[in-house]
Amino acid sequence: MRKGTLSKMLAAVMALTMLAGTVGVPQVQAAETTLHFGCYGYADTLDPSDQINAAWDVMRIGISECLFKYADDMTVQPNLCDTYEVSDDHITWTFHIRDGLKFSNGKDVTPQAIIDCWEVYYANTEGSSRPTKYMDYESMTADDAARTLTVVLKAAQADLRKNLAYPVFGVLDVSDGADIDYAPVGTGPYAITSYEPKVSATLVKNENYWDGEVPYEALEVLYIQEDSANTKGMALMAGNVDLVENITATEDLKMFKEDTENYNFSQAEGVRCGFAYINQAGILGDATLRQAIQMALDDETMCSITVGGLYTPGYSVLPSTLAYGYDELTDPYAYNPEGAVKLLDDAGYVDSDGDGIREKDGQPININYITYDSRKLSDFAQAIQSVLMELGLNVNVTVTDSDTEWNMMVNGEYDLCDSNWTTVGNGDPTEYLANWYSAAPAESNANYCNYSNPEFDKLYEEMKASFDDAERAEKIKQMQQILIDDAAVVVHGYYNSSMISNKKVEGANIHTADYYWITTEIKPAE
């Protein structure tokens, strides 16, 4: 498979060479330096408005950029916008666009060009990106002479900059003839020349890049789809690629981390949380049963042994690295297997027929656990199944693909359902915490676990309405504690992202945000 894929990549480069002189197509030169990157391809297009994964992918390989970007502490920094103003009511936001910006094809990046791009995104009502969720505007106007873009919102936002740093607002040229599906033109360090979805992409240096020197003449991306296998590691060891992201094979991770002579290894606790939704409309609506399950699970062992250190253990839905008061939270259901047994016994969960499965009111306890084979989620599920079976709870694990699992979750066809979320995808946990907010209108309700707590809902609404960062952080801390006290979520831990390169490369460090894989920090080793 690898040979066939690489052949396609070479064929793509040859085809582009034959296009020399074609207007608007960047040409692949006889590059002195080429970076070969192996990564997972999540989308079958590069149109940010069509799929949320596409918005991420087009930014990850260095094509698109936003007005702002996230620092590693998930605060926002200026990017294509250098200064801004906001009205006292947080309704009107005015952004100054940097002078001299150009797209990789040489066209000027004007405020109107940015609005034109965003309007294309908003017009795609069939796409999954749904930019309205992040910025619902009354009007957008451009003053190209002053280089300002003004947005009037329908409702106030605490910090619109955080949303405008999200990849769904990546700026692309959408003027006549633009192909944002397969050849998007952005402002990032690299310009795409060929793209075969989930197979390969070839890019060249953006000669018009605004933020310093681009270190490579060309970038070749090999999409490696076997997420659960060690294919990325094999490609790196074989020399087919120079750099890979997020290897999940435990033995490979250990080997690359220890082999400092041949590889550079960067790993960091990011902002992803691995967890299992608990469907409270079913058997797990009983708080005692949920509490006993929490107490039976040894998160430290599962994170360090079961998944080989790929996760950092924790008990809140927000990672301990974020500034939302994790150290002030308490866990009343910490690992205590004897306590779990006592809870069940005292509540009348007993094995009366001796078959090893507890019953309540004569009904055996059968738990339907759905998961998918990504980021070691199925490993967690199987470990939890084993522990709970020993506790006398029958657990049926179904391993499927992420799309099927999502549909089952939406339809309520589960008791436990695995997930791995970026908790502050737009620099803020509001969207993520909506998973447990029960007061939303039916058409916008994301609470597929049927959780309901009036105090949580009240705090959520107050947090959304507040413009004060300290006040918001305090309410978010309180919401976390409510979820912990209600044993509302089985938290596996916090996913540790990684970037690994051979010694021909330097500066390949993993960032907290999942959107910045290929940057100008990555360069040939001296």
Give a structural overview.
This protein has 526 residues and is an alpha+beta fold. The protein folds into 2 domains: 268 residues, Periplasmic binding protein-like II (D-Maltodextrin-Binding Protein, domain 2); 227 residues, Dipeptide-binding Protein, Domain 3 (Dipeptide-binding Protein, domain 3, Roll), CATH 3.10.105.10. 28% of the residues lie in helices and 23% in strands. The chain contains 14 helices and 21 strands. Strands 1, 8, 9, 10, 11, 12, 13, 16, 17, 18 and 19 form an 11-stranded mixed sheet that branches. Helix 7 packs antiparallel against helix 9 and helix 13 runs antiparallel to helix 14. It is globular. The two termini are 33 Å apart.
Please tag this protein with its features.
single chain, 526 residues, alpha+beta, D-Maltodextrin-Binding Protein, domain 2, Dipeptide-binding Protein, domain 3, eleven-stranded mixed sheet, four-stranded antiparallel sheet, globular
